[in-house]
Amino acid sequence: MSLPPDLAALLAPPDPARLPLPPAALPTPGVRLLRGVPYLLRDGHRPLELDLWLPENPAGPLPVVVFVHGGAWRTGLRGDAGPAFRSWRPGPFARLAQAGFAVACPGYRLSGEAVHPAQVDDLAAALAWLHVRSGELGLDSARTVVWGESAGGHLAALLALTSARRVPSVPPVTGCVTWYAPTDLLALARDPADGHTFEALLVGGAPADVPERTRDASPVHHVSADAPPFLVLHGSEDHIVPSDQGVRLAAVLREAGVTADLRLIEGADHLWYGLPDAAVERCFALSLDFSRKRTATSSPLSSPSSL
Are 41 and 16 in contact (CB under 8 A)? Predict the structure, then answer.
């Protein structure tokens, strides 16, 4: 049965680039929050949404931080920077907005919904949405840092290293911050033949059984000389994602001639567990400072710091 053209158009999913924006909340003095903004509608999947934190009275187009949540690719909330930050008032995203950034926190398909590369494809679509609507939102999408924790750090690294290929119409990412992120999934797997680990669920099988997809899902295998600068923070006592994962990413980046600032945080386990509050603040401050430098209107590359 054929439908009248007008009715067929009405039945088609709306274009997120044209949907009206939700009204802004004011969660913290000087900060506006657009919560649950649809950025991608895929046939057969739930709508994907992002939260957008903005300074209330910006002086001009805003640099952008895209923050990617963790949760072992299996769970997680887009507005959660990790348990170390849940008691912060104001929270970390409000603080970034107060510092002059637009902060986008996108959701993405989890491994129970789709396997790699669905997650990074979704995040690339979020970059495209931010770029298309940058004039309306007052964003400078040519100054964008991606930042993530744990599995979100892995996805942030993948996005930073492959965004030019995935969304060539969008300006390249200018920096990447990873916190305790997996970077080489085959090396991370304690038993590459185990198909029930979090990394196996991400790639759709035991890493040993799907080596090409596991390699494609590993940021270390996407490093090239045109990668953006990285800040890599990893706890020295991480029992879930060993610090060797961060060390390897920094080493591969440097071998390619890319600036990689590696900071091994002494005494820190995964999620910054065991770290004093002042040291957690320091990790955040280091990441904020890196984001400022990488989104400055003129930002010369700093020299690589030593291990």
Answer: yes
- CA distances 191 to 154, 186, 221, 265, Å, are 20, 9, 20, 27
> If DSSP codes are grouped into helix, strand and coil, which group holds residue 82?
coil
Distance, CA of 243 to CA of 250 (rounded, Å): 11
The angle, 0 to 180 degrees and rounded to 10, between the axes of the packed helices 118-132 and 151-166 is 60
H/E stretch holding 67 reads strand 62-68
- Helix-, strand-, coil-residue percentages of the chain, each rounded to 5: 35, 20, 45
Q: Is the pTM of this model over 0.90?
A: yes
3 state DSSP class of 304: coil
Type of residue numbered 25: A
Query: pLDDT tens across 155-205, in order?
Result: 999 999 999 999 999 999 999 999 999 999 999 998 999 999 999 999 999
CA distances from 172 to 55, 143, 164 (A): 23, 8, 6
Cα-trace Rg, the chain: 19
Q: Are 146 and 173 in contact (CB under 8 A)?
A: yes
Place of tokens 């970077």: 183
The answer for residues whose C-beta is within 8 angstroms of residue 203's C-beta and 6 or more apart is: 115, 116, 185, 210, 213, 214, 217
Buried-exposed string 224-258: b where 16+ CB fall within 10 A, e elsewhere: eeebbbbbbbbbebbeebbbebbbbbbbbbbeeeb
Tens of pLDDT along 243-270? 999 999 999 999 999 999 999 999 999 9
Q: Are 98 and 21 contacting, i.e. CB atoms less than 8 angstroms apart?
A: no
